[in-house]
């Protein structure tokens, strides 16, 4: 979350991917954490499902600073065209 209490772009992206995963699996109950963690890996890696170490939780305040730095670096590189 930002200082104003609004979700970050990273959080919103993870939320959207988790929702897509939930829908693709038939909207099952009780799988929210699993879907969130899968979505998180997809968003942070920038592609489909990948095997990575989980570095954050569904709680916005608990996202590891290293994950945010990595995402910011990737965004800057993408914007720079490389």
Strand % is: under 5%
Number of strands: 0
Task: Please tell me how large the radius of gyration is.
Answer: 13 Å
How far apart lie the N and C ends?
A: 28 Å
Helix count from the secondary structure assignment:
3
The computed structural class is mainly alpha
Task: Give structural notes.
By secondary structure, the chain is mostly helical. 55% of the residues lie in helices and 0% in strands. It has one domain (9-79). It has helices spanning 9-24, 32-45, 65-79. The protein is elongated.
Topology:
Blueprint: H1 9-24, H2 32-45, H3 65-79
Annotation keywords:
82 residues; mainly alpha; 55% helix
Brief overview:
The chain has 82 residues and is an all-alpha fold.
